[in-house]
């Protein structure tokens, strides 16, 4: 796990789901990607040469940073299509390295990602059903414009 510690750890706090000191599944406010991050981290820990896994982790961490740091759930919703696609491609890439694209592991990882998407959707639904929370999430005109702009960008790239 030497390269993970060199390439991923310096980018994150020690308590973060990405940090090599964490073991097993670490749940985060981001919800999406929790299982995959844990699997990557554990594979890197078990590997004699974690270079490819550490690079994948470093790349994914960089691409997810904005999503993970965003506290407004509606902005995360607007960005969730990009994040899901990125997570699916990472699964394919990592399992492809080990020639496991058609394996039971793939099915498990896909199910875990789908479960996280369902959980994420439930969190969105809770906000949509609570007028007070929805008003806070919607924010001011600038924040509403930010959500709409991000949604439009996502639709343009689907």
Describe the structure.
- With 158 residues, this protein is mainly alpha-helical.
- It has one domain (2-156).
- It has helices spanning 2-7, 34-46, 51-69, 73-97, 104-128, 131-138, 141-156.
- The radius of gyration is 17 Å and the shape is globular.
- Helix 2 (34-46) runs antiparallel to helix 3 (51-69), helix 3 (51-69) packs antiparallel against helix 4 and helix 4 (73-97) packs antiparallel against helix 5 (104-128).
- The protein is built from seven helices and no strands.
Jot down its keywords.
7 helices, 158 residues, globular, single chain, mainly alpha
Topology:
Layout: H1 2-7, H2 34-46, H3 51-69, H4 73-97, H5 104-128, H6 131-138, H7 141-156
Helix pairs in contact: 2-3, 3-4, 4-5, 4-7
Query: How would the global form be characterised?
Result: globular
How many strands appear in the DSSP assignment?
Answer: 0
- SS-based class: mainly alpha
Q: N-to-C SSE series?
A: HHHHHHH
Strand content bin: under 5%
Give Rg in angstroms: 17 Å
- How many separate domains make up the residues? 1
Mean pLDDT: 92
* Fraction of helical residues: over 70%
N-end to C-end Cα span:
36 Å
Poorly predicted sequence stretches spanning 5 or more consecutive residues: none
Task: Characterize the main sheet.
Answer: none
């Amino acid at each position: 796990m030497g390269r993970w510690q060199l390439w991923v750890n310096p980018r994150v706090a020690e308590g973060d789901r990405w940090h090599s000191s964490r073991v097993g599944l670490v749940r985060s406010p981001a919800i999406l990607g929790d299982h995959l991050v844990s699997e990557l981290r554990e594979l890197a820990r078990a590997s004699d040469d974690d270079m490819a896994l550490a690079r994948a982790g470093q790349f994914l961490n960089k691409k997810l940073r904005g999503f993970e740091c965003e506290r407004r759930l509606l902005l995360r919703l607007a960005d969730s299509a990009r994040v899901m696609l990125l997570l699916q491609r990472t699964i394919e890439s990592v399992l492809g390295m080990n020639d496991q694209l058609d394996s039971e592991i793939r099915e498990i990882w896909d199910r875990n990602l789908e479960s996280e998407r369902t959980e994420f959707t439930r969190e969105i639904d809770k906000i949509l059903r609570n007028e007070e929370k929805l008003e806070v999430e919607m924010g001011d005109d600038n924040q509403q414009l930010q959500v709409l702009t991000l949604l439009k960008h996502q639709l343009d790239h689907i």
